[in-house]
Amino acid sequence: MSGAFPVFGEPAPWFTCRTDTRERFVFDTVAGRYIVLCFYGSAAEPLSAQVLKLLFAQRQRFDDDNLAFFGVSVDPDDERLGRVGSSLPGIRFFWDFERSVSTLYGAVQADGGHRRITYVLDPLLRVLAVLPLAGDAEAHIRELQAVLDRLPPVGPAYPATVQAPVLVLPRVFEPKLCRALIDYYQAQGGEPSGFMQDRDGKTVMVLGQDHKSRRDCTLEDEVLRLACQRRIHDRLVPQIHRAFQFQVTRMERYLIGCYDAGEQGHFRPHRDNTTKGTAHRRFAVSLFLNTGEYEGGQLRFPEFGPALYSAPPGGAVVFSCSLLHEATEVTRGQRYMFLPFLYDEPARQVREQNLAFLEAGPEAPAGQDAAGQAG
After folding, report:
1. Handedness of CA 233, 237, 239, 241 (dihedral sign)
2. pLDDT 10s digits, 28-48
3. What is the pLDDT of residues 129-143, one digit of tens each?
4. What number of other Cβ atoms are within 10 A of residue 3's Cβ?
5. Rounded CA gap, 61 and 144, in Å?
6. pTM for the full model?
7. Contacts within 8 Å (CB) and 24+ apart, 197-206
């Protein structure tokens, strides 16, 4: 977590707390729907009471399937006097009289006072919005409504099909950062991108338009590098640990790639860790910078069927480097990507042992950073 409270894109803290209907409510079990988590303090406070009244005037929003509301009270009289209470489906209250949950979410001020604040969480329990409550209840509810109105519905249940074991994660980079990376590439230009092969005892970079057509630009701008580091570390690494029980500590490459329809941009089926110089790679990240501005250019995992994978702008597809995958041809426009590899400390030892086999080149796995510090 990057500060005193979770911010956009970060995982919301998990906790267990008492409600009026359950002695131990395990918060992480509510994932799978959008959540409004409102730290209102006390229902006896006029501003808080007005916020709750305006929220409950929209009772139909909170159906537990798409959206649920959780109020967090720090006032024992809210329970004792029955000022608020659960209304199922969709509305529940936590009794946080010791303020442990409020502390996790930055709702306790340095002087011990209570900070009123509302969070909107996505179905993965990541922060979508942080809305402080100042002095205008109606303005606060309008701001919250605007956020909720933009959210796509969770949708009904449907039968699953055969799927590659990949993690598709939206909202890793925000639009401003995506644009900055594309602008950087366009200002610097890209060089032809190769692929790694073992030849005569060395891992070398090979060019071949039939197999791979992409141009790459190494990101040298320290401000942009740090911005990418922080978002990978804060927004992506925790989800990889949750999904795959793998603790990322290292990141390889600050690389912006461009697949151009004018050059039939593509990358034929391959794996990312089959040479001595790349054997340390554990997870590949395909982070989409401008989805919707081109046609084609999707990921396919042939071992798991013909399905095509993508992500919204700023979203990532994360997968094991051992999986066979390809980037299909871009048929219109230019597809911009941010393309790091992630690994851990045992893999770092593998990399160091294999450095003697590595011949330097544009894709040589050099310049790794510790993800515990930087992504």
Report:
1. negative
2. 999 999 999 999 999 999 999
3. 999 998 899 999 999
4. 8
5. 12
6. 0.87
7. 197/275, 198/275, 198/276, 198/277, 198/357, 201/357, 202/357, 202/358, 202/359, 203/275, 203/276, 203/277, 203/278, 203/354, 203/357, 203/358, 203/359, 204/359, 204/361, 205/359, 205/361, 205/362, 205/363, 205/364
